[in-house]
Design brief:
The chain has helices at about 10-25, 45-55, 70-90, 100-110, 130-145, 150-160, 175-185, 195-200, 215, 220-235, 245-255, 270-275, 290-295, 310-315, 325-335, 355-370, and strands spanning about 5-10, 35-40, 60-65, 95, 115-120, 145-150, 170, 205-210, 240, 260-265, 280-285, 300, 320. The protein has about 375 residues and is α/β, with parallel strands linked by helices. It folds into two domains: about 5-175 and about 350-370, Rossmann fold (3-Layer(aba) Sandwich), CATH 3.40.50; about 190-335, Glycogen Phosphorylase B (Rossmann fold), CATH 3.40.50.2000. The strands form two sheets. It has a seven-stranded parallel sheet, with helices on both faces. The chain has a six-stranded parallel sheet with strand order 10-9-8-11-12-13, sandwiched between helices. The structure holds uridine-diphosphate-N-acetylglucosamine. Uridine-diphosphate-N-acetylglucosamine (UD1) binds near residues 211 and 244.
Length: about 375
Amino acid sequence: MSHKLMLVAGARPNFMKIAPLIRAANARGDLPPVCLVHTGQHYDEGMSEVFFRELGLPKPDHYLAVGSASHAVQTAKIMTAFEPVLLAEKPACVVVVGDVNSTLACALVASKLAVPVAHVEAGLRSGDRTMPEEINRVLTDAISDWLFVTEPSGLDNLALEGRAASSVFHVGHVMIDNLLHEVARLQEAPPGETCARLKKELSRYGVVTLHRPANVDSLEVLSNILRALETIATDLPLISPVHPRTRSNLAKLGRELHPGVVLTESLGYRDFVHLWGDAEIILTDSGGLQEEATALGVRCVTLRENTERPVTVTEGTNILGGVTTDSILAAYHTALTRARRSQRRPRLWDGQAAGRILEILVKELDARAPKPRA
Ligand code: UD1
């Protein structure tokens, strides 16, 4: 049976999850080329195009150019732009990944048009409804037909929310598929100029990423975090590729940072792996980086009070550091008491998740397809 799959990507953390699904679909002989929709939620060269190039993603079949706006406006723009595309393409299924506004918006449009939806990276819950991503996760899962889960907590969360076990599949993590794929090719792609220079200048360093609205939109929280980072930087230089949201809030603070905190432009995927893969420690409020650090065994302190990815704490390298100066410093010192590299990796984080997802999807779609009359 030949099923046309429509894949949706919108923001930076989507692109590395889509790439392995496209590779796995192309590797099968029984599927037409996937139809790729890029909503344009992220649109800058550094937030979008560099990832398409480096990850070998095809040019999107549809680019919706929605851009930045408030949550309501952005979500609505994605929905109204996506609906005609879906009606024209008539895919067998829409595959959405992660927890950004594009994920929810496209899942909602598809489910209202009775097009089945597969959610990849389903079931994660922080329990914190002030996070926009938590709302996107809960709602996307509620309307998806198939829920592909990265870690055991996802199975528990979805069972608690009453989802039938027959629609939930623990398959591993497409983002880790992509990481392992790229790490195997890193030698062929030497670091770019900024990354190479910093690695040469600093034999030991930590890597920082900060972009959550809760951390960077409040100048008080941002100042508390910066105080901790500047204290750490007196011992270990820190390199931080800066997200556009953070850059504008740092400018509002209007003060110089300790010279041990080195800010760079946001980096492409490979440069960033070159950088954090060799770091002493990562300090981050990203969701995905907690998992990538665990997969490569790099120490990680998460600059949040909670995580929707608890396997990174129970089985991985992650420690919750909170957002106060003291709690971050305490977590940093605890992390340094641990081995520099851990070898433990959660179950099914083996580079094969995308293949498993497609295997299941094709079977499920076959089962739903109208049977030819005898
Ligand atoms: C979004 C996701 C978040 C993800 C993050 C990764 C939602 C609700 N949030 O948050 O889950 O972790 O992406 O980056 O979907 N901007 C640019 N260039 C771009 C894109 C954005 O300059 O290409 C600027 C704009 O000023 C924009 C701001 O960054 O207003 C924030 O972008 P937005 O997509 O609204 O949210 P993120 O904070 O990036």
